[in-house]
Amino acid sequence: MRANNPNAYAFQDWVTWVALLAIRKDGAYVMVEEKVATGEMSEEELAVKTMGILQAKMKRMTQEKAALQAENARIRPAAPVGATVGQRSCLGVVDFARKLPGVNTMQVQRDL
After folding, report:
1. CA angle, 20 as apex, 22 and 18 as ends, to 5°?
2. Which domain of life does the UniProt lineage start with (predicted)?
3. Domain positions in the chain
4. For the chain, what is the largest distance between any 2 Cα atoms, rounded to a whole number of angstroms?
5. 3: helix, strand or coil
6. How much is the pTM?
7. Distance (Å, rounded) from C-alpha 60 to C-alpha 56?
8. Would you report the helix, strand and coil content of the chain in percent, each value rounded to 5?
9. Contact by Cβ (8 Å): 16, 1
10. 58 — pLDDT class (breaks 50, 70, 90)
11. Distance between CA 87 and CA 91 in Å, rounded?
């Protein structure tokens, strides 16, 4: 990192000496940590604030996990088709249709 703007020097120093140091030590940085050091906030208030942040993060992660599981369930039936296509150098339309659940291969042949 390199700051060319005089206004950016303070931010650069804060990132390298406060935020990244906290992440290295604790695995996370909580935005109000400095307030405890300066006495603007008590340790109990920091703990409450941190718990709120973590609860919101867990809720977001749970929602993201549910969305990914729904997407996996939606595309899972296509997995055997993808595996078959990946194993063969040449695959005809009818052969491809045979791998799809619920596809009438006779109708595919007639439509071609």
Report:
1. 65
2. Bacteria
3. 1-30, 31-111
4. 80
5. coil
6. 0.52
7. 6
8. 75, 0, 25
9. yes
10. very high
11. 10
